[in-house]
Amino acid sequence: MTFFSRAACAFLPLFLLAPVPALAQSPCTLQATPADTPQYAMPDDPWIYRGTDIPVDEKWLFGELPNGVRYAVRQNNVPPCQMSLRIAIDAGSLNEGDDERGFAHLVEHLTFRQSRDFGPGEAIPHFQRLGASLGSDTNAITSPTQTVYKLDLPNANRATLDESIGLFAGMVIAPTLSSDNLAADVPIVLSERREQAGPSRRIQDQTTQILYAGQRLAERLPIGTVDSLEGATQGSVRAFHDRWYRPENAVVVLVGDADEKVLAAMVEKHFADWQVDGSVTPAPDFGDPVAPAGADPANPVGEVSVIVEPGQPRGFTYAVLRPWVQIVDNLEYNRQNLLRSVAAAVVNRRLETQARSGGSYLYAQIGQDKISRSVDGTFVQFAPISEDWEAALAEVRGVIADALQQPPSQAEIDQAVAQFDVAFVDSVEQSRIQAGSALADQVVQAVDIREAIASPETFLDVFRSIAPRFTPEQVLEATRELFSGEVIRAAYLTPEPGEADVAQLRAALQTPVTASALARDDAEAIDFADLPAIGAPASPAVIEPLGVFDIERLTFPNGVRALIWDRNNEPGRVTVRVRFGAGWQGFAPDEGVYAQMGPLALVNSGVGPLDQNDLDRIAAGSKLGFEFSIDDGTFVFQGLTRQEDLENQLYLFAAKLAMPGWDAAPFERAKASAKIAYNSYARDPGGVLNRDLDWLLRDRDPRFATATPAQLDAATPDQFREVWSRLLSQGPVEVDVFGDIDRQATIDALSRTFGALDQREPLPASVTSRQMAFPEDTSEPVTLTFDGDTDQGAAVVAWETGAGSAGLPESRKLYLLSQIFSNRLIDGLRERAGAAYSPMVSSSWPLDVDSGGLTFALVQIDPSLLPAFYDEAAEIAADLAANGPSPDELALVQEPIRQYLNRAQTGHTFWLNQLEGAAFDANRVTNIRTIWSDYDEASVAEMQALAKKYFAGTQPLRVSVVPAEGAGTAAAGR
Asked: In 317-407, which ranges are continuous DSSP H helix?
């Protein structure tokens, strides 16, 4: 069952938003007619379950055509009216010959360019006109073992579904693999390859080569080689396609808002006639991991490598590898998998405890995975804090050695088991609202790893059936199974030449290690009932309708406001979002380092009497979350929970405001992490932009500057506490609780938590007056440099736009304009010139502040082509301002957003995202009523007016990132 191997919905028409929307049922379900009679469905002999005792998930209908095509279909109306089609070809980069490296991925590109029913470049626009978005709805992916074509078709009726399946089938079965199309697509693939290049790619390549030495996986990544791609011919690519794109190698999955007979009949109609001459080519032998001759069976260390990549953070990976074998995916196999999962969770908790206590590594984790039908491995990864990698390795191995020698405590096991149980229960609760696209992907994944699928109920039943096996002795045995294997391989990444060599690495792995029990955690569970109260409970002074649906606004005597909405179409799912304070506005100019440290350290610094380990223990057996982010004008806590845990979730958030903990260890750990990462920014264009772009877009405001190592060294836990104590206590608080809630229980829980807070301090005028400034002088481009590959570069062009919630309608139309701009840029730089793989244009319109809005274009490109990018962007901006887009260009971006709105609105999170802040800001409510018309009724004239307003007569900010002159030159920056 795939879960163990890797780790009916209300429909709300947006056009009814006047004045208050009403709920209606999905109108799209396609009912079967007598003509919808699949001939090859096999309900009594589903192919994916053959040879297993796993209970059949009868919501699926499986079939097998005479030509060998296997299919799986399922009725699902989440989201309503959508159909999700997957065509999986059982061939990827491991199926390539030596002179075909990259062909599997190249064929994927060619499939979308031209085919049996589509002329050059017609496929993507066709599906966009039907509402499918490029990248999210219409996409493909090539892995070492599989190529999968994906289409999520919104608003599907019988005609569009039938036509789309036929067209998509024609793309996969009969692409036009011509010399002209190769000439167009090879440069695009090479651009994609160039964008992927750099330190991260080199590290991945070298690590893959050492971990899978002697196997095909070591040398065949999907992106391929330049020589093979440039040497591709019409004949050689056609030969690859004919060899592997055969009905016997294909699985078709179709999930959607239709009777399963309708879906099965359509699959049979469009795939039954697929025939390919010749016999099936067997897949090549992927090879097994093999220990070197004479290796110690008790410690079979094989290939090891030291990877030197200047500027990169240190990292160590070692793997205990076993051959991948085709298993019998039965219940007992999955029970053993679960035992090993619990064992790994116990070890990971100990490794994390050791790191928190001031260990010699920043993080460490273990995990079992089956990789590309090539190995079954247990992987150990950690990041040494300093150059003393041997101490970090010994510390990690010491924790593992203890786990291999002595059984864990029952308390440790119970904590891990409780977390798994919550996850399985949640899966059952969410199963009826699981998106059809996710269900389709699950079958494709199961086929790839050669396992069956199972319902969430089966997952939970199997897990609970082995409760008697979760004993210290059984978990010890499972831990030992994790670390038994044919060969051990390792790779150490270091920025410093000479810091380690292969002999030292091998010796360190072969040196006997002393077991360390310091990280064992036998502490008893903690009960929320034993924690101190937030304060005296206070009921809301006012409960009133918000004016949208039956959402209510609560106002408490202390000034806290809340929005609550009981929506039971997502059973067991509740989202809590707490907005407070001033966000980026709240920081003084010299406090940027503490802003950067906040998301890394604030949550983990504790709550009241609870430190990090206490928070883990108290969360065991509960569904709780604690995300933290900083927006322009507010701070945000968020957690996904359920009604039975809602009050505890609210308590954690309220306690963070009322009685924050100030454990210094998370701060020091976050500081070490930031220092380690800093030097890596200068090694590639993307890193430089991550480091400096926000700072440049904000007119070099020091709050947005990435902290340097010197600034991090000067930062102190006491100052961190001083800054964040102030920020946690200031400004209004809004609590949003949306989802499957008990209304009165939620109000009572809010009263005991946020209603019990003290009065908040108002935001000082010095805070609310701070602006997010755009650079005044943009006459000259800004040039940044990096130490890296000379054929890599990046550029940004940015225009200042608007901000503030009163401008929400304009922000929506500006989004449409940015997508038109993006399509033109893709067409100009990618499709016509092959200069860049993924240029994009984005629009940002802050709602909580009145400044800081941007539209910007970003591209990764060869430095020699940067002028072409600037010219292309300037030409597009000028033409949109002078002439506007064509009606077809506007329609191509409108239909996907219409369909997105229709899909997304079925979940409460969509409405939470639209209405957050509405407890204090009436504009959020007023402008929610025009959300559909702002997109649907936008005109070409409006697009031109916006382009003229923001693009014409202004000089955008231009930022170029280019290689530094001379090898080893330090990257220039601010």
From this structure: 331-356, 389-405
> Side chain identity at 110, as an amino acid letter?
L
Alpha-carbon gap, residue 542 to 109, rounded angstroms: 58
One-letter identity of residue 816: L
Per-residue DSSP letter, 288: -
Q: How large is the C-alpha radius of gyration of the chain?
A: 29
Indicate the fold that domain 782-963 takes in CATH. Cytochrome Bc1 Complex; Chain A, domain 1 (3.30.830)
What is the 3-state composition of the chain as percent helix, strand, coil, each rounded to the nearest 5? 45, 15, 35
The tens digit of pLDDT for each residue in 35-50 reads 999 999 999 999 999 9
Task: Report helix angle 808-825 to 887-904, nearest 10.
Answer: 120
Beta bridge partners of 837: none
Cβ within 8 Å of residue 444, ≥6 positions away: 86, 88, 146, 148, 251, 253
- Nearest-angstrom CA–CA distance, 229 and 223: 9
Strand-pair partners of 258 = 30
pLDDT value at 24 more than 70: no
Order of strands, sheet of 854-860, starting from the edge strand that comes earlier in the sequence: 782-786, 957-963, 794-800, 854-860, 840-844
Domain boundaries, the chain: 28-198+207-271, 301-510, 528-768, 782-963
Q: What is the 3-state secondary structure (H, E, C) of 286-332?
A: CCCCCCCCCCCCCCCEEEEEEEECCCCCCEEEEEEEEECCCCCCCHH
Query: What element of type H or E holds 137?
Result: none
Tokens 């095909």 belong to 216
DSSP state of 277: S
Shared fold status for 301-510 and 528-768: yes
Taking only the tens place, the pLDDT of each residue in 640-698 is 999 999 999 999 999 999 999 999 999 999 999 999 999 899 999 999 999 999 999 99
DSSP letter assigned to residue 30: B
Q: What is the CATH number of domain 301-510?
A: 3.30.830.10
Q: By CB neighbour count within 10 A (0-12 exposed, 13-18 middle, 19+ buried), where does 862 fall? A: middle
Residue 20 has pLDDT above 50, yes or no: no
Q: Which CATH class is domain 528-768?
A: alpha beta
Q: Do 350 and 403 touch, CB atoms closer than 8 A?
A: yes
Distance CA 935, CA 890 (A): 10
User: Taking the domain 28-198+207-271, which CATH number applies?
Assistant: 3.30.830.10
